[in-house]
Design a protein that fits this description.
Blueprint lengths: L7 H28 L1 H4 L7 H13 L5 H14 L4 H12 L1 H25 L2 H7 L4 H10 L3 H10 L5 H7 L7 H6 L5 H18 L10 H35 L2
């Protein structure tokens, strides 16, 4: 009987369930933190997180033009090394999963492309110093020369490199702008997952309010099942990408 509980697939299932409940808890805390942002911010200090939260509250009040403002904010944040994860969560709260994912992807892609061009033409020496001691990126740099598009795509799918620094770092490699831009599609799985988390945070906030769904049991079942599927697919893709990236780097 004890052997039944040592099946690798069963272990992965319980880990996935644990991750889902942990993420739901984080989503709830995110919504509370988002709501209390203005109260906790210190106006006398530079706090990027508080700035972004306040900006999200302002965007939420803009209505239809809020999408344009959000994309612009995401572009600026990506170039300025601001914590983009806050904006990704916020997109789910404000715009929902579908549109939120679309706006995040557009903003992140444009921002990453600008950072790439800055790293290549304006701040090459500074970027080189920042990544000089990064052995992982040194290996990536060698592999990019042979498989530029493939490496960019795999690094976007595998979250083992910091997103903002990676944008600049690719600028000093031999990868073409075209391959770098196309490789941005690798951001889609992770984007959808994090936006989904933000969307769940917004849905949690509606519990007990007049805006809650007419049939909350059915709605929450759909949301949670969809979220589990999204997390499972994202983890699966990430593991495949990370393994492929390690193999590609080791062969160069």
């Amino acid at each position: 009987m004890s052997n039944q509980f040592n099946i690798p697939g069963l272990r992965k299932y319980f880990r996935l369930i644990g991750l889902v409940f942990l993420t739901l808890g984080l989503a709830f805390l995110l919504k509370i933190d988002f709501a209390l942002a203005q109260e906790s911010a210190n106006p006398n200090s530079f706090n990027p997180q508080a700035i972004l939260r306040n900006a999200l509250q302002w965007i939420d009040s803009l209505g239809t033009v809020g999408a344009i403002a959000f994309i612009g904010l995401y572009i600026i944040s990506t170039v300025a090394f601001f914590p983009g994860l806050i904006l990704t969560f916020g997109a789910g709260i404000i715009f929902g999963v579908a549109w939120g994912s679309f706006y995040v992807f557009i903003g992140a892609t444009i921002g990453a492309t600008i950072a790439f061009l800055v790293g290549r033409y304006l701040a090459r020496n500074w970027v080189a110093r920042k990544i000089a001691d990064n052995k992982k990126f040194a290996a990536i740099d060698q592999a990019v020369g042979k498989e530029g598009l493939k490496i960019v795509l795999l690094t976007r799918l595998s979250p083992i490199f910091p997103f903002t620094l990676l944008n600049y770092a690719f600028g000093i490699t031999g990868v073409s702008l075209k391959d770098y831009f196309i490789g941005s599609v690798g951001m889609i799985p992770g984007t959808i997952m994090y936006v989904y988390i933000g969307s769940l945070a917004g849905n949690l906030a509606m519990i007990g309010s007049q805006n809650q769904p007419t049939n909350p049991t059915v709605q929450w079942t759909i949301w949670i099942v969809g979220f589990i599927a999204t997390v499972a697919v994202t983890i699966y893709i990430t593991r495949i990408a990370q393994k492929a990236l390690e193999e590609e780097v080791s062969n160069n």
